[in-house]
Write the structure tokens for this entry.
Amino acid sequence: MTASASSAPPPALSPAVTFEAVSRHYGAVRAVDGVDLAIAPGEFFAMLGPSGSGKTTCLRLIAGFERPSAGHIRLFGEQVEDLPPYRRGVNTVFQDYALFPHLDILENVGFGLKMRGVEAAERRRAAAEALELVKLPGYGARKPGQLSGGQRQRVALARALVNKPKVLLLDEPLGALDLKLREQMQEELKAIQKSLGVTFIFVTHDQGEALSMADRVAVFSEGKIRQIGAPEEIYNRPRTRFVADFVGSSNLLPPDFVEKRLGARRWGSLRPEQIALRPAGSGEGAPARIASVSYLGATTRLGLETAPEEGALRLHAAVPAAAATGLALGQMVEAAFAPEAIHLMEDAP
Amino acid sequence: MTAAEIPQSRGLRGALSDWFWRNPGMTLFLMLLPPLLWLGIIYLGSLFALLLQSFYSIDEYSGLINREFTLKTYAELFKPANLDIILRTVTMAALVTVGSAVVAFPIAYFAARYAKGRWKAIFYLGVMLPLWSSYLVKVYAWKLILAREGILNWTFAKLHLTWLVEAWLALPIVGGNSLSVSHTGTFLVFLYVWLPYMILPIQASLERVPGNLIEAASDLGATPRQTFWNVLFPLALPGVLAGSIFTFSLTMGDYIIPQIVGTSRRFIGQAVYAHQGTAGNIPLAAAFTVAPILIMGVYLWFAKRKGAFDAL
């Protein structure tokens, strides 16, 4: 399955998961508000959004922990909103893992098979195999309390995968891990997903995680999907100011600023790495004062404040570290960028 | 920094606090001393004095206590009449325990998982309120409720179900002339009186079961019944066990309820009461007392072996 470059769902006879105008209301709160969605079999799909945006509720609707207030949910074409979680054949990796504290690791992993009546020997074999897949062989006899956060996370993954689900739901599974472990798990998750061909639906509030792992990303806010697309599309061509702001660290350009350069009176976005520094007075860019300098290793992140006649905008520029040496706070420079680099958005000006 | 910036100790009390802070071991010792003395001398001491009595015997002719070590009194426990009392009491205690657990679990589950704020307060009040009134009043009230002319029979009559009560009372062992003079009546009163001691520990243990474990089980294909037996019950087991220790031992030691509501057949508590009182047979009374202690010990040992404390 290759990532689709358009915002339309990839073609398939019956998508793994379909939302048809699904809403979930709690009293007056619209946690999920008229969401339409189609996720293809074998896709790695990320639901991205700030907390309270409805992404986790969507996941819980697929798992069956919540029932929609309106609309229909289909799994492989079959309508499932009246089916309890234990009849859906979907498995979840919970945010805080939800391992059974009274069972050892092997029993935890084999739990789903036991519920389906798989006999003990076969269960142990399959559980041991799943533990090997997540690189925890030989941990079967321990209790969840004896494992580290990262190991528990792997057990939760093995416990879900051992059931060979057609759709695996992951609710911020890496949120509790430290940075290094998180990056390692991101790669492993992606590798496991590719090798098993299982549909992964991954909820996260970390845009870097969503962009680096997913085939497609849905950006949520206030119970609605604001944009669906491949990571490059979401990153380079955000449809709204919200998406531009939330995904990465784009500079938002007000309509006045954009009109001067492109003639169109629209909101625009500009990636920090698309801004280059020129000496003051060169006339190649907008005059700006350096307001902050953060050294990030390969690049240096500069906070720039444009002159009052340019709207006194706060811009962020990411320049190669070598280009930033010798810059001082308060120094005047020019922020140069190609007008084509400005991406126009759909918001009303 | 000058010394004046450090707040100075204020008088003798301040000095004393400082001394305790510097000597935490001494603080702990002084705090524990009174309860340890109470527990060691008065509580366990009197228990061991009692146990000691059980190894004495009574002279059948003079009625005097023979203070020589013997197992004769214990042998007497195994006489059919006495064994009967022990078996009857243990069976009743076991039934009351199982009955309380079955009734308490849904109540505790509701309180732990669904009751919030005001409902939780109502729950605690509802469970605790009966404990505030006198035990004797409650037992006598039950005698009236269960009497032939009582409200229970009246209700069954109104529902045209008198035949059901009659059929039940016609059964051997559990039946009798009326509910108030049957083992069924004794069971019901025990169940009522000890129920709070079962609800509260189960509720406390269920409170500590994260809700997402239930979701996880369901997600992994467990039906509600499977979730109960594989996740909820094992995790609540320490609570059920703590409750059962209360209901089991309280039932085994009680001598008032079977005397007021029930048959003339005796329970351990009544036997102890009779032997240490009118009969003056302290050794046999003591030996009877050891029986529940041993049974509880065996019960707990068995529960531990079965892994009932693993989830603690």
Observations:
- Chain A touches chain B at residues 63-65, 84-86, 90-92, 94, 96, 98-102, 111-112, 114-116, 159-160, 163 (CB under 8 Å).
- Chain A is about 25% helix and 30% strand.
- Residues 1-6 of chain A have pLDDT under 50 and may be disordered.
